[in-house]
């Protein structure tokens, strides 16, 4: 069971999200809140740190960072890194870590490359996906011997509904780049949006419904104007055993994912923003 707790932290971290965040308090006013237009760029050096809880117990942390600009096949891309790791206590019991890189085109915000490194029991697994937007296809490579544990219970059944392919459609994102694509997307309350995510050599549609902005208290951080994004996808069922996920984005132009939560086959997971820098 303890092993599964850590795995949920690490896998779930990728389904998901210059001043410290607590300085961004909002007064509770009666005027109607609105979702601001998003910024059309990502700030180099931005780092978001989250505390992750399983059934209310802290189990680890997630760090997302816009590292720098890289040239991928002639295209300038934002290089963004995600790290998911257990806390010290659980690391002593089961040392496992995920590191993911995504390279997002500066012009159209579509992913150009995805890299995932999974370290477990001293062994590694590497996955690289290169997205050829012109040919509408991918180059998929994987190697390594790190073990994979199925915590979904519905992985085989759900996977059968999505055929394997090396073809993609316009706008396809990788699992990690989709978080930043949503941050840069023009959205309106009450509207629904669909994003296609390429994962495990398959195309998975993710359906998102945008809620009305409201004030939400973040523990020990303050009160924020946010909007709720409710997401459903067979991909979540494939990985975690449950299809739903909720993310609370700040309603300002930065669209910071302040909190996320989702269910799994063995309990709920919640991530809460701890720090914003850069």
Give the distance, in angstroms, between the N- and C-terminal Cα atoms.
37 Å
Helix content: 10-25%
Would you tell me the structural class of the helices and strands?
A: mainly beta
Q: Could you say how many structural domains there are in total? A: 1
Tell me the overall shape. Answer: globular
Low-confidence stretches: 1-11, 13-27
Most strands sheet: 15 strands, mixed
Quaternary status: single chain
Per DSSP, the total helix count is: 5
Describe the structure.
There is one protein chain. It is globular, with a radius of gyration of 18 Å. The longest helix has 11 residues, at 2-12. It has one domain (2-277). With 278 residues, the chain is mostly beta strands. A hairpin with a 4-residue loop joins strand 6 (123-132) and strand 7. Residues 1-11 and 13-27 have low confidence and may be disordered. It has helices at residues 2-12, 88-93, 155-159, 177-183, 234-240, and strands spanning 47-54, 57-72, 75-86, 96-105, 111-120, 123-132, 137-144, 173-174, 192-199, 202-210, 214-218, 222-232, 244-250, 257-264, 267-277. The chain has a 15-stranded mixed β-sheet that branches.
Supply database-style keywords.
single chain; 278 residues; mainly beta; 15-stranded mixed β-sheet; 5 helices; 15 strands; 13% helix
Write the layout of secondary structure elements.
Blueprint: H1 2-12, E1 47-54, E2 57-72, E3 75-86, H2 88-93, E4 96-105, E5 111-120, E6 123-132, E7 137-144, H3 155-159, E8 173-174, H4 177-183, E9 192-199, E10 202-210, E11 214-218, E12 222-232, H5 234-240, E13 244-250, E14 257-264, E15 267-277
Parallel strand pairs: 8-9
Antiparallel strand pairs: 1-2, 1-15, 2-3, 3-4, 4-5, 5-6, 6-7, 9-10, 10-12, 11-12, 12-13, 13-14, 14-15
